[in-house]
Amino acid sequence: MALEALKSRRREDYKFTLEYRTRWSDNDMYHHLNNSIYYFLFDSVVNTYLINHCGLHPPSSPQIGLVVHSHCDYFAPIEFPAVVDLALRVKKLGKSSVEYEIGVFVKGEEAVKAVGGFVHVFVERESRKPGVDGMGAPLREGLREIVGAGVDAVERKPKL
What we know:
five-stranded antiparallel β-sheet; alpha+beta; 32% strand; 160 residues
């Protein structure tokens, strides 16, 4: 996707938002959020959504999500102290996989500071292989709720 399109993201492009208050320890030696913190935040917003809206219980759910790809494009720095909005949507929904997009916004500012995401493949906890029917129904239904408008979300139907 073109960087200009990502730079033009707005909060309303996303379906779920989680607030995060930065910590002093989030800064790097250049006095802005360290790049590793962005990935921590991506993981937090996605898993908060999965737990609260998709019925996932990481310690005991029969399926787990494995991250198979991640990325982030940075547009402007964020530094402590700041309150950020982590905005989440689904870009693609497959049989056992989902691609998320996360926009990072500073509270009170319109311009997106970073856009990133990752791909989860949901597998059976024990075998680490995708289930016959892909991800479970509660997970799929919850993820459908945050499929972004105007994105190329596709859902593959299971073969009968």
